[in-house]
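User: Could you check the structure of this?
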Amino acid sequence: SKCRACRRQVREQAGEGDHHEGLSSDEELTPTEVDEFQKSKDNVLEDSRKIFEDVHADFCDIRKILLKFQEWKEKLPDSYCDAYISFCLPKLLNPLIRVQLISWNPLEQNFTELEEMPWFRAIEEFSDAENVSESK
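Assistant: Sure, the predicted structure tokens are below.
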């Protein structure tokens, strides 16, 4: 575009060689903006660590929560079924999983795959146990 050509000409005259073609200069962040973003991100992460500070471990650990539901299903299958627990679990676990995903960034080089996260494995084990008990 005409604007892009103008900006390129201005950069060439100013001797800016570190611009990557295809990136708009409008999209490039200033060091101040990068610092503000990092501070904001750090504050969010710090706040997220405090969310479950006053919650008993049995009620903020996904594996422990799912074990309680597994026990319920084994001891009182009719009651478990009548409560439509399989429909409730996604809503119940959603906040716990979201807190664990706050710092997750799939665009980083060394990011953890979702399937390798402890909460994912716990849900997978619970699902496998449910499928086994249903097949009986």
